[in-house]
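Worked example

This section walks through a single chain of length 265. The input is the sequence exactly as stored; nothing has been trimmed or padded.
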Amino acid sequence: MVRSNSGLSHRSRREKYLSERGAIQIHARLAPARNSPDNCAMDADTLTYAVGDIHGCADLLDALLDKIEAHAAGRPRRLVFLGDYIDRGADSARVIETLRRLQWRDEGGVTCLMGNHEAMLLKTLHERGALDLWLRNGGCDTLHSFDVDGPEYLPGDVLDWIEALPTLHQDTQRWYVHAGFRPEAEVPDPDEDARLWIREPFLSEERDYGRHVVHGHTPLSRGQPDVRAFRTNLDTGAVYGGALTAAVFGLSAAKAVDFLQVRAR
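Given that input, the structure is written out below as tokens.
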């Protein structure tokens, strides 16, 4: 049953939530550019699997993880998830549960980046007017999956986990980011809005960022990854009937050596 709002307006409930948890904490975590620890010291045979936008497609995630384990076949491996775990799909709660379980089992081997949908959710907790935008972009599906009627009722440990997500990860060959970088910016782009939201001119401008950029955010209608000279887009539209994709990377080359997919239909 969806939790009752007990007669409080969203504004009143949001202000009560911020008072209890501390708005300063939320603003402090949103302000700085958050980078995950570098993964530059890896065994030569380590494989990195980067996974595109999941958007609540928990069954596809489970199936893709099975494919990853079979492909790795006992070799050392790392997992990098590119953000947008929630919204639009039916089971955001189970997606987050799965990712957190993976991190608990292998803390140093699993990196989860923030996407713009996680950022939109956080924004509803400290900015007036942000709720409608999030709900229009799939937030209702996330609330339903957690069986609550407002973002302030989401489990505190889930919100803490989302708030702590970095927006950038790197290894010796690649940058991993949800959306991309501003082509004119320093590398890596310190602007978190760009990391979470950019499409153009990042998608159309061919720039060498020093390392290959692995990203999602912009869904590809044909359900196949888009591999360019300096970037690879892994958002293959899982929630839109496309596929959930993992790119397989080694240490000897910047581009993927293979792709694993689970089709949505």
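What to look for: The longest strand covers residues 243-249.
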